[in-house]
């Protein structure tokens, strides 16, 4: 989870989290909830909980949520979004005043924090849920006609730059990491067989995998 001090409405926070990470935070176990409770400063912080039978924003249902006393109360008919409150009070200071921080899938509770429902238009700090982005690897085969030594490091580096520029021109928004796949002898390019160069007799054709 990633905590942001920027003040946003619940919808603004969700949009930001979905663009920059995965979604608003939807903690599901003791470790995740302990982390959120530890990192959260004292105050009210948006999480991924909203009034639709009170689901997490990733559409997971939760019937074991531990609300603060009297909540959710939908005060004024506008309390449709959930937040976690971290309070300075705890059972060690006031045995009659437990502030609960609950999580889906269990009935355990913690003192020092709780869930509450609030007006989605109020601006608060928030937690995003961040999952590792899976890396994609793709092998490309490149055929080059040139009289240059294509295994020269300078030539290979210049060609990588050109390939990266071409990918951007074709609409690739990400910034890929390109590298040559070396053969067992350390070279990258090798000459094609004669039968593959029937119409290229006057040029040196080399092929490599990128």
From TrEMBL:
<protein>
    <submittedName>
        <fullName>C-type lectin lectoxin-Thr1-like</fullName>
    </submittedName>
</protein>
<dbReference type="InterPro" id="IPR016186">
    <property type="entry name" value="C-type_lectin-like/link_sf"/>
</dbReference>
<dbReference type="InterPro" id="IPR001304">
    <property type="entry name" value="C-type_lectin-like"/>
</dbReference>
<dbReference type="InterPro" id="IPR016187">
    <property type="entry name" value="CTDL_fold"/>
</dbReference>
<dbReference type="Pfam" id="PF00059">
    <property type="entry name" value="Lectin_C"/>
</dbReference>
<feature type="domain" description="C-type lectin">
    <location>
        <begin position="1"/>
        <end position="129"/>
    </location>
</feature>
């Amino acid at each position: 989870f990633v905590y942001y001090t920027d003040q946003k409405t619940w919808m603004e926070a969700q949009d930001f989290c979905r663009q920059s990470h995965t979604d608003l935070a939807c903690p599901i176990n003791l470790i995740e909830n302990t982390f959120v409770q530890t990192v959260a400063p004292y105050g009210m912080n948006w999480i991924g909980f909203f009034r639709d039978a009170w689901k997490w924003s990733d559409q997971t249902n939760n019937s074991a949520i531990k609300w603060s006393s009297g909540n959710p109360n939908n005060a004024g008919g506008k309390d449709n979004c959930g937040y976690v409150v971290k309070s300075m009070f705890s059972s060690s200071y006031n045995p009659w005043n437990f502030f609960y921080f609950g999580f889906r899938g269990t009935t355990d509770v913690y003192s020092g924090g709780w869930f509450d429902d609030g007006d989605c238009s109020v601006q608060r700090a928030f937690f995003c849920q961040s999952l590792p982005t899976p890396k994609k690897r793709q092998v490309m085969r490149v055929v080059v006609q040139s009289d240059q030594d294509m295994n020269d490091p300078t030539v290979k580096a210049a060609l990588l730059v050109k390939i990266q520029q071409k990918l951007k021109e074709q609409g690739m928004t990400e910034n890929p990491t390109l590298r040559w796949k070396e053969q067992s002898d350390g070279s990258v390019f090798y000459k094609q067989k004669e039968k593959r160069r029937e119409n290229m007799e006057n040029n040196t054709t080399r092929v490599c995998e990128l």
